[in-house]
Amino acid sequence: MTQTLDTGEELSPAADRGPVSSEAQDILESNLGKFILTAFLFLVMLTWCSVRSHYLEGGRDDVGDNLVPLWIRACVLVALLIPLLVALKQDRQLCWLVGLSAAVGAVPLLPLLPFLRDYTHLAVLAWLLILPPVLLQRVPISRVPMFLALYIAYIATCAFSAVINYVHLHNIWQIKVGVAFLILFGGFGYVMAAIVGQPLRAEARFRSLLDGFVWGAFAQAAVAVIALPLLLLSPFTFGNDTIFGLAYFDKYKSTFSGPVSLGIFFVISVPLLLIWLDVKGRSSWLAKLYLQFAPWIMMATGSRTARIAEIGMICMLLLLPKSRMRTLAFLPSALVAYIVGFQYQALPPAIFRFFSTDVDPSRDMSDRFFVVTDRIEFTKETIAEMAQESAFVKFFGFGPGTGGYRTSGFPTPHNMLLNQWAETGVIGTLALIGFMVLLIWGLAKYGLSRSPGADQGWILLIAIASFAAVNATYTPHYWGYVMVLLLLASTKIIAFRTEQPAGTMQSCADAKRLS
C-alpha cells in the first residue's frame, strides 16, 4: 500500500530501503546497532584527541593540527566515513547519523581547507558524499518555503561576495575560507532542500535526526564520566589541549574545538532530550541520569555564556506545562552545580576550595563575571572599519569566513550580527536574519496550533532561544550542532505543514456530517 499527497509524492514502506538487506537494516535500526555505530565514532574521536594532544605536547605552544602527520589525519577521516558506508542509501539511518554527528566534535584539519576545521563535523561529510544524491529531488518553485528561499539567497550572497572580493583583492587566504564556508553552507542547504522535496517523510526524518542527536549526547555524557575525574586529578595543566586532548587548561572541552561550544551543546541538549522523551512516549532511566548530570558537565566547561544561557533555558522550560515536571526533577542538581561552580573559571578550583585554602584566587570570577570590555572594543573597531569601506563592502562584505581571525586584517567583532555584516554585508545579514525569523515564526505557529505534538514546537523554540545569548559574543550559526538544531526546526515545520491539509479536510468532513 502507498500513500499519496496532492504534491504528487509517493511514499511506500520500502521507499527508503537501499541495497542492504532487510535483516541488516533491522540490525542497524536496533539499539545494539546504534550503540555499535556510536561507540565506534567516539572511539575514533577519542583516539584522535589523544594522538593530537601527544603531537602538540598538550598545546603548550598554541599550534594547530599541522604538527600531526597527514597520514594520521587522513586515516581518522577515513575511519569517520565507515559508518556512512554501513548506512548507504538508507534514509532513516543516514538522518540518524547526521543527528549523531552533531555531538562528534571537531574533525582533523582538512588539507587545502585549513579554516574549516573548527566548525566542521561528520554531518558535513555525510551531506556532501551521501545525503544529497539519495534524498534530493526536484522541488517545484511553488513548494519552496520562504525560509529556504532566504537561505539560498544567503548562500548566493556568500558566493558572490567571495568571488568579487578575490578578483578585487587577490587574497588567497580570503578565497580559501570562502570556499570552506560555502562547502558548509551548501551542504546544509542541500539537506533542507531534500526535506522540502519529500514532505511526507519529514516527520520520520525529524525523529531520526532527534534520536541520533540524543544518542550523541548520551555518548558525550559517557565520555565526561571518564574525563572529569581525570580533570580533577590534574587540576591545572598548562596548555590548550590537555588531559588527552579533552581539556583546555583546566576547562573541559571533550572532542569539541573549545569549552564554549561544548557548554552550549549541553544546554540545548536538555530541551531536545525532553522532546525525545515525548516522542518515545515513555520514561527512560538513562535520560533521567543525563538530566541530573548535564548541568555539572556544562559547569565543567567554564563557559560564562553557557551558564547564563542555562538559567534562561530552565526558566522557559518551567513556564511550559509539558516540560515543567521533568525540569523540576533535575532543578535541585542544577542549583547545587551553580552554587558550587558559578563564579569559578573551571570546576576543579570550584570544588577544591571546599577542601583546601591553596586555591588560586584568580580562578574566582565573581568580580569580573559580566565584564565584556574586550568584546565592546571589538565592536567599536568593526563599526569604525566598516564605516570607512566602500558601498560594495557595506552591502556584500569581505566574503564568508573572513571574520574572527585577529591576524587576518579583516574586522573581528566577536558578534554574530556584526560578523555577518563584515562577511556578507547588509544583503547577507538580512537574508540570514530573515531565515531565522521565519523558522521561529513557523515553530510558534506550530506551538499555537491544536496539533497533538504542538508542545514540541515550543520546546524547539526554547532550544533555539537557549543559544541566542551566544550571538552577542560568538557566531554560532555555523557550529555543527546548531546547524543540526536548525535542521530539526525546519524539518518539524515541514512536517507540521504536511499535516495541515489532512486536518483541514477532516474538519470539513466532520462539519458536513453534523449538518
From TrEMBL:
The keyword Transcription regulation does not apply. It comes from the Bacteria. It comes from Bradyrhizobium frederickii. The keyword Transport does not apply. Keywords: Membrane, Transmembrane, Transmembrane helix. It is a multi-pass membrane protein. One of its GO terms (cellular component) is membrane. Residues 296-433 form the O-antigen ligase-related domain. It is found in: Membrane. Its main location: membrane. InterPro entries: O-antigen_ligase-rel_domated, WaaL-like. The chain crosses the membrane at residues 35-55, 67-87, 94-113, 148-167, 179-200, 212-236, 256-277, 328-347, 425-444, 456-472, 478-496. This is O-antigen ligase-related domain-containing protein.
